[in-house]
Amino acid sequence: MIPERLHLPGQGDSAPKRGHHKVYVGMAAGVGKTTRALNDLRDHLESGEDVLIGLLETHGRAGTIAAAAGLPVWPRQTVERGGVSLGELDVAGLLERRPALILIDELAHTNIPGSASALAGREKRWQDVEVLLAAGLDVVSTVNVQHLESLNDTVTRLTGIRVRERLPDHVLEAADELVLVDVTPTDLRARLQAGKIYSLDKVDQSLSNFFTSENLTALRELAMRQIANVVEEEAPSGLPGVKERVMVAVAAEEMAARLIRRGGRLAERLNAELLVVSVRPAQLSSGASRFLDTYRALSTALGGTFTMLDPQGGVARALVKHAREQHVTQIVVGESSRSRLEEFLRGNIIAFLLRETRNVDVYVISRD
């Protein structure tokens, strides 16, 4: 097979602006990185943008398959290997097609020997992504923290498992946006037991090996620290002694106390400021007012501040505006209680936060 010869804009043309790279990072398989990335892609599609799934690894997971339903897919390059037809990312085809945004799953993946990418000297999928970014194409991708090269020995020591697929740290350091997709070890193990990550015949072995509570707790801590380190390095200069700021967005409802406590623990771990905010509703009942008084006191008790924001422009825009003004590096929000119809009419706040914030980690806490 003849290696592909790629003509990149910039070779004889004026060099293009580098594409935007957004990476969803998780502590382990099954946390929901790919589903979140697919939902991100769908939001852009519904906004009228030209988007494509460049390469998706569903691993047969029903939730991932459902999240991808109806999204446009670019065909894979077929590679014959050992009498089996396999698929790899079609870099040349995507460069010619030039969509506005491409989803490429599993950055640390090793390209199949004999594929066009491998023959062109690109052993890893992240190198394919680099070609697309250099050509000015925007990419959203996914990776688990245990695949980072610098953490390989640490992950082996903590889990007893040597991860073979690895990714250079500079890939995340160069990314324009990092989004930590976080669930508790208990929730992740519950997903595993329900057959949502691997087939049921693999559950017991997984629970007793890689997916132990101890391993997941350690990996979760590594993921949080890694994201925090990257954000700290890229934090705006000129802030007197402050690089980490955790903003917790709450409404006048029972879930808010849990969000504030979660944000308080995160702020303590990162040695960060805790900023609790709520967007002032058009009408505030006496019950809602009591809720907010309680949350103001809780925020103060945890060493933070509590601020009511002006609702002009809507809840999502008010949160993004405050996050930018305060140089926030982490945002903690609760899972939406809105119905699909309400989200259609008023917009999805979480999706807006993810789309409009830059170099900010967004933690979405489940309502359960």
List the helices and strands and how they pair.
Layout: E1 21-26, H1 33-46, E2 51-55, H2 62-68, E3 77-81, E4 84-88, H3 91-97, E5 101-104, H4 116-119, H5 125-134, E6 138-144, H6 152-159, H7 169-173, E7 177-180, H8 185-193, H9 203-208, H10 213-234, E8 245-249, H11 255-270, E9 273-279, H12 286-301, E10 305-309, H13 315-325, E11 330-334, H14 340-346, H15 349-356, E12 361-365
Parallel strand pairs: 1-6, 1-7, 2-5, 5-6, 8-9, 8-11, 9-10, 11-12
Antiparallel strand pairs: 3-4
State the gist of this model.
Helices cover 41% and strands 17% of the residues. With 368 residues, it is an alpha/beta fold.
What's the count of strands? 12
Average pLDDT taken over every residue: 85
How many separate helices?
Answer: 15
Instruction: List the strand order in the largest sheet.
Output: 2-5-6-1-7
Distance between the termini: 53 Å
Helix-strand pattern: EHEHEEHEHHEHHEHHHEHEHEHEHHE
Range of helix content: 40-55%
SS strand fraction: 15-25%
What characterizes the major β-sheet? 5 strands, parallel
Shape: globular
Contiguous uncertain segments of 5+ residues: 1-5, 237-242, 339-347
Round the Cα radius of gyration to an integer and report it: 22 Å
The structure class reads alpha/beta
